Amino acid sequence: MSIDTLTTDLPVVERAEGETKRRDETRRSAEHRVSSRAASPSSLNDPRGTLTGLDLLEAEAIHIIREVVAEFERPVLLFSGGKDSVLVLHLAARAFAPGRIPFPVLHVDTGHNFDEVIRFRDETVERLGLKLEVARVQDYLDDGRLVERPDGTRNVLQTQPLLDAIAAGKHDAVFGGARRDEDKARAKERIISLRDEFGQWDPRNQRPELWSLYNGRHTPGKHVRAFPISNWTELDVWRYIARERIALPPLYLAHEREVFRRDGMWWAVNEHAQPREGEQVERRVVRYRTVGDASCTGAVESDAATVDQVVAEVARSTLTERGATRADDRISEAAMEDRKKNGYF
Question: Which residues contact 31 (CB under 8 A, 6 or more apart)?
């Protein structure tokens, strides 16, 4: 009697149990190999290994994205066209390939965006066949729900349109590209962050996330913010962009632009940012480390015209990207935390 015949004659239950046992043994063996490599820092750069530091960060982010989609009913991804949201979108595409990304993207449009970023946003949405939801600050200014700030910046006016868009879309989970290395307020926020009925964050009411277990339970009216790249650094982001050859808006690479000096930053001359008396307009080669409103985001002098050159430049930097170029974070020492408590990202 052949082995094939013996196997076929086994009862169905015994064959199923055998298959389950073999799958469990294979899984445990694979988990042991992965954990062994991950436990050794030297293995992360070992060309003979199969996992690198970027591989581990990618795997963690994809795991978080899949967990959120499995657990929540109506997730959405905040997508502005900036590098971090582009990265999260890329990871989401990897998480569900070859299928489509199973949730829409949301942009809170202040009306003070860089034209290059908006074009990139629209091209990306069309290329991936995504549904784009847009909440416009200008609509709130037009009907009186918001009032223009004396300093002209609209970044801090995004909170109410964001919360209204979340409520209108009945979104119970909102992906964002925030990272812990950007700001001390973001450094202490969990990967899965609970927001109350008013969209507010309470730093004293955070859940433990031991062993990469994420608790997304919430009552009706509340929602969570999910940060898949929370553990990445700016250098990790750029190294991954270089490895994956991810397209970005051209502002992130060195280019010549008319700028003026204010508060230690180079501001681009545009309809939303004009030089004051005594501020001299110059033509300089600059690039943007982070892209927010044109009315509150400064550029840095740089000759990094390729992604590889940006990687080298970031590796030498001793100042965070937001600390170097974001005027809205300089309002006070707790500017970011205050905005997050009110519902901002």
Answer: none
For residue 84, the model assigns a pLDDT of: 96
Distance CA 216, CA 219 (A): 10
Identify the helix (H) or strand (E) that includes residue 231: none
Distance (Å, whole) CA 224 – CA 56: 24
Structural domains present in the chain: 53-234+336-341 (3.40.50.620), 249-331 (no CATH)
Q: What average pLDDT does range 266-272 have in this prediction?
A: 89
In the sheet where 300-301 sits, what is the strand order? Answer: 265-268, 255-262, 281-287, 300-301
Backbone angles phi, psi at 9, to 5 degrees: -80, -10
Angle CA 323–329–330, to nearest 5: 85
pLDDT tens for 103-118 read 999 999 999 999 999 9
CA distance 108 to 79: 8
User: Which strand (E) or helix (H) includes residue 297?
Assistant: none
> What's the average model confidence in pLDDT over 216-239?
93
Phi/psi of residue 106, nearest 5 degrees: -125, 130
342 has a pLDDT exceeding 80? no
